[in-house]
Amino acid sequence: MTITQTDTAVLAVDGLRKIYNEGTDQANMAIDRVSFLVEKGEFVCIVGPSGAGKTTLLRCISGLAAPSAGSIAFEGEPLDSVPEQLGLVFQDYSRSLYPWFTNGKNVALPLAARGVPKSERAQRVTQALTSVGLGHVEKKYPWELSGGMQQRVAIARSLSYRPELLLMDEPFASVDAQTRFDLEDLILKVRRELGITVVLVTHDIDEAIYLSDRIVVLSKNPSVVKEVVTVPLGAERSQVETRSSETFLELRSHLLSLVMPNDD
Amino acid sequence: MSMPAHGWIRWILPSLTVLVVLLFWELVTAAGVVSPLQFPSMTDSLEALWREFGSERLWSAVGATMLGWLIGMVITIVLGLVVGTALAFNGFARRSAAPVIELFKAIPSIAILPLVILVLGSTLPMKVFLICFAAFWPFVIQVIYGVQSMDPVVLDTSRALGVRGPRRFFWVSIPSASPYLVTGMRIASAQALILSIVAEIVGGAEGIGRNILLAQNSGTTAYPTMYAYIIVAGLLGILLTGAFFLMERRVMHWHESQRNIRASSKVGRA
Amino acid sequence: MSRLTTSAVPTERTKVPASTEARRRFGRIATVLWLPALLVVLWWVVSANSTSPFFPPLADILAETWNQWVVFGAWPNATSSLQNLFFGYVLGVTIGIVGGSLLWRYEHVRIATNPLIYFLYVLPAPALLPAMIAIFGIGDMRQIALIALGSIWPTLLNTLDGMRGIDAVKFDTARALRLGGWRTYFTLVLPGAAPQIAAGLRASLTVGIILVVVSEMVAAQSGIGYFILQAQAEFAIKKMWTGILVLALIGTLLNYLFMFVERIALRWYYRSRALGGS
Description:
The complex is a heterotrimer of chains A (264), B (270) and C (278).
Chain A: H1 3-8, E1 11-20, E2 28-38, E3 43-47, H2 54-61, E4 69-74, E5 77-78, E6 86-89, H3 93-96, H4 103-113, H5 118-131, H6 147-159, E7 165-169, H7 177-194, E8 197-201, H8 205-211, E9 214-218, E10 223-230, H9 239-244, H10 246-259
Parallel strand pairs in A: 2-10, 3-8, 3-9, 6-7, 7-8
Antiparallel strand pairs in A: 1-2, 1-4, 4-5, 9-10
Chain B: H1 7-30, H2 42-53, H3 56-89, H4 91-106, H5 113-120, H6 124-148, H7 152-160, H8 166-176, H9 178-201, H10 208-217, H11 223-269
Helix pairs in contact in B: 2-11, 3-4, 3-6, 3-9, 3-10, 4-6, 5-6, 6-9, 9-10, 9-11, 10-11
Chain C: H1 18-47, H2 58-71, H3 75-105, H4 107-122, H5 129-136, H6 140-164, H7 168-176, H8 181-218, H9 224-233, H10 237-265, H11 267-274
Helix pairs in contact in C: 2-10, 3-4, 3-6, 3-8, 3-9, 5-6, 6-8, 8-9, 8-10, 9-10
């Protein structure tokens, strides 16, 4: 890793290690040594077998959890808390949205925290909700919407303050298959329109191939980077054609062989 | 949020606090910040407590308060289980009785105290009636909720196995409603103890409450005894309500872990 | 602690076509009203020719209530009780919510004060009445202090429990959105614990009403408890019944007022639960 690369990268993870309950007899190493770079505008997926420290890794690179060793830099700055220019979307929308606030108020929360004046907030909220294909839900509550729509609100909330980097933790794991396809296309569209950098954690290999430019494959616990796979599928993707293309299927079998547990 | 507390801290800190509070009490009274006419010193009060522990007076008062509590609780629980289960299984009866139960629950039990004293006198039945009137309504609502919250699968299974009648009541309804029932019992117990003390202070029935008031009426020299009895009332609260409190924590833990398993399996299927 | 407590008997609502809606609604209202109405009528009829000194005819009680409370002007008794209850309750639950929040925030303080708070919570509050008389003498000050002291603990413990029960993901969200300390407290911690704080407030109200009346019965020169016990001592049974009736009415109205406010303030909670949400 050269210095110039690290400087242009939105996210630079170097030698990351995470041990839970460090120093006690219940010490548990979730991540051993993970390094990778995410360039500006890239869509990177992180996949791994179940039990790999995927969520732990995401908590570390978002600044929610401190690593035990190694360094993480966001736009060249070392992390000590969640950076202002970072958006985070959790898997469980019913747990991350605040049910006592309307959707509009939920989306406005980070704006208020960032000191956006009240007069501007309403317009920004509408804008964010429209960008994820939702109109007229501002006065409704999250629990009045379907699961897919709730996750859209959660995405809109992260987009409302126009972050540089969007981190998503299994964002489509709790919705049904059709909604999942819709949301995948939505996130591709948002990324194209806003030119945003996206890092998405998933256990679904097909989803990872369909969405990303590069895929970071983790080994099982304690995690190391097994391989970084480049996805040469171009910028335009469609659920039917892309998923049935030759390249897709080749990548799929390659990734499967990497993730399958009995492959060591 | 803050640093995780180590094992020894969990023991040292609470003991230290009790010690500090007792010392503070002693200092404040000894230094004359608070007049002994209003507040006796810690040592005098604990001495009085020690003296009372050796006396017949304290134990008969404790016995009287506990007896009222016990009879009241038994009547409340038995009646509440029977009425509550019956209402839970009969929609029309429940809808009819609901406003009456809610109304009686909203009426402060203290309101009927003078009438009950007039009719029954300063007796144990007076105390028991008052306890039941205060504890029954909230408990019966908990029973209805508990029985209704029963998992339909459990109910169907018991039907398929041919479990019905009293057997279904004891084997199926009661266990699956237990988190609600234990919470209801804890609330009922706290209410019963409060009303017990009230019946003794206002109604003059035998028990700790009456002894507290008697000590207060006997003038400043008896104030240490008054605080001794207040401490006894608190200890009784720990014994009677605390037992249900701990039971509730355990049952609730079981209940919530069960619920989480169910919820996560639902997400998995979706 | 009381995540499983409720204030009302459960009744299910099912959706019906508009054509039968009116008839169903009438049926529902009739089902709700027939038993209370029957009980009142029964009381009226059975007590009509009562010669028992303890249970005068309902008609006489109602007439006497008009006399005592409106004609003779006993109503200041009720207002002075309500005033003391209000100040004591507001003081107590404010301390309860602030104290509960502090104990939630500072774990070591929580561990340290645990036995003390637990003791005061399970101590039956009326037992403190004689001590309060000794300290404050007879007057509004003592009433307010006693009510406050009694209503702190249910609110405090429910506040603490409610805050500790908030989902960890919601705190992660707050950090991810960079809400900051105070904003997290007001947008997440307080509303997240609100359903249980409300349960605590309700329990505190029950204790508060008992305390205001008991302390008036034992040592006071005014108030509704004083009125009732005075009537009882004079063996003025009908007058006592009017006091009971007014007290029951006030207590019931306060409870229903509380439930009404709770339903509005926690509308999101009740509606999301009705929809089967989390």
